Amino acid sequence: MPRYILATPQELSDFLASVERRAFKQAIFATQNEETSLDLVQDAMLKLAESYGDRPAEELPMLFQRILQNAIRDYFRRSKVRSTWTTLLSSLAPDDDETADPLEIIGGNDGASNLETPETRFTQGQIIAIIESELAKLPPRQREAFLMRYWEELDVAETAAAMGCSEGSVKTHCSRATHTLAAALKAKGISL
Fold first, then answer.
1. Residue 163 CA: distances (Å) to CA of 41, 68, 122, 133, 145
2. pTM of the full structure
3. Can you tell me the distance from the alpha carbon of 154 to that of 159, in angstroms, rounded to the nearest whole number?
4. Does one domain contain both 3 and 68?
5. Burial of 62 (0-12, 13-18, 19+ CB in 10 A)
6. N vs C: which end of the chain shows fewer Cβ within 10 Å?
């Protein structure tokens, strides 16, 4: 019987710290709402720690992605139901206007060179903003597959397990996403 080395509390903590920004970006791309995204990521992190904190460290990335993607899908299911009831009962409830200040997104420049000029950083920031905008336009499953494969660096099998689909579907979604992004960026004069 194979023995698995379980993740230590420090390994779990380090994993969560390393994934939080990327997970937040994934949630932002899906929901287009910062507060909701923060809640979804926090809930996914808590669920991972509570339910799967005793798993081997190498299983944590796939488990976390599955939890996060399920949380995002659940959010959309709840939103659809909530939207239906809100529409039906709109005459009874006042319209709440969310006027909270948006949180600042801290750019992840870990390991960035000190030799970068302000002009270079500005240009990179503009390109990143365009890429993020184009990612947000992708269909949800393509975006999900693309982010897991190329941002989270999960392999095809792990991505398929996290998405609950076949490996062939993952490859198809990634291929379509890559071609769509490349065409959109080329149209804007960006070649990577």
1. 17, 10, 35, 23, 8
2. 0.54
3. 6
4. yes
5. buried
6. N
Strand partners, 6: 56
One-letter amino acid at 127 equals: I
* 115/73: higher pLDDT: 73
Shared domain check, 69 and 19: yes
Mean pLDDT of the chain: 80
> How far is the C-alpha of 62 from the C-alpha of 68, rounded, in Å?
10
**Which alpha helices (H) appear in the chain, and where do they start and end?**
9-31, 34-52, 60-88, 118-137, 140-146, 156-163, 167-187
Cα separation of 126 and 42, whole Å? Answer: 28
Domain count for the chain, please give it.
2
Contacts of 5 (CB under 8 A, 6+ apart): 56, 57
Among positive and negative, which fits the CA dihedral 23, 26, 30, 31? positive
φ and ψ at 56, to 5 degrees? -60, 145
**Tokens found for residue 19:** 């994934």
What is d(CA 114, CA 91) in angstroms, rounded to the nearest whole number? Answer: 57
Domain assignment present for 45: yes
CA 95 centroid distance within chain: 30
